[in-house]
Amino acid sequence: MRVADAFRDAYGGEPTGIWHAPGRVNLIGEHTDYNDGFVLPFAVPWGVTLAARPRTDGVVRLSSLQEPGDVQVLDDLGGGLEGARGWARYPAGVFWVMRGTGLPVGGADIVIDGDVPRGAGLSSSAALEVATALALDDLYGLGLAASDTGRMELAGIGRRAENDFVGMPCGIMDQAASALGREGHALFLDCRSLASRRIPLDLAAHGLRLLIINTGVHHELADGQYARRRQECENAAKRLGVAALRDVTDLAAALGELTGAERARTQHVVTENHRVEAVIGLLRAGAVPEIGALLNASHLSLRDQFEVSCAELDVAVEAAIRGGARGARMTGGGFGGSAIALVAEERVDQVRDRVGQAYAERGWAPPTFFTATPAAGARRLA
Ligand code: GLA
Q1: pLDDT digits 0-9 by tens, 108-125
Q2: Residues with CB under 6 A from ligand 1
Q3: 262 phi and psi, to 5 degrees?
Q4: Which of 29, 175, 248, 314 makes an SS bond possible with 276, Cβ 3.0 to 4.6 Å?
């Protein structure tokens, strides 16, 4: 494996093990996780592969095949974990959280290799966090990966690294999908109780494909707007006197009490939670193609009520539907990244052409396309 070769080149000697954690795509349940709501993501076949060996002196050395020449040594001379820069903040944050919560985690030599398509919004950062947490769990004998509860703890460690060390106020969805994903299944997660259920998702059995359309754009406002949406949701919940928007049961009454952004955000979050439950119901009933209409509704709500879409995502979704997709929506945080389209096998080429054409007409760089089936979650490879 090339990550093991890179490890030998970088540090000499053999790594103790090799671990992999996947990125994710979200089928439905967008911007609901930090509102204590429901999500339905699945792990994708791309992610982060990491080779590591423990160190007794507490020092952390990090290098990445995607960032050649940037070996970061995090010790007292280098400012400790806080000295991490750029991509290295994600793994450094995981050490920081684990040590901070009193877990017996020493140092390590680590090499990272990633194959999540760039700019696709498929959670390469969550994959990096979960891969690091899983490796440390194993290297330091913590045993968390052995159970689903423990895996959810690993996901929580990744999320806290991102929230408190990197400074991105994300929810738990991406890390949970990476830590708990299973081949052929989506992960239905209640982001309040953290109870999860794996839902069989065999699109091929229904003659369907999930097409991922990577717009290749990442608008600069993404991070600031994400934090702002979170704040607006919290403000709305406070005004309504509930712990989180998840608790709104009478939507009409709630909307009557709110105005402006708070009203619109609430409308999205409450209806999106219902859409997740409706999708679960349809999947259980084997009515897979029917979820398309809910994907479409989710997109309109994200575009008009939550206001996190952008022209590139809207054009991809509209062209996919015109090209014959059963349904399509933006996926992930928004302002770029990817859209997904549920497409009958025989229409995949047509949908691809339509979207490509729509981009070409606008003079935009062509999007890239992937199809993905649910892959396994984080695991040790060697
Ligand atoms: C990003 C965050 C997730 C989630 C989505 C929106 O991917 O990392 O926690 O909030 O946006 O659903």
Answers
A1: 999 999 999 878 999 999
A2: 30-31, 33-34, 170-171, 173-174, 332-333
A3: -60, -35
A4: 29
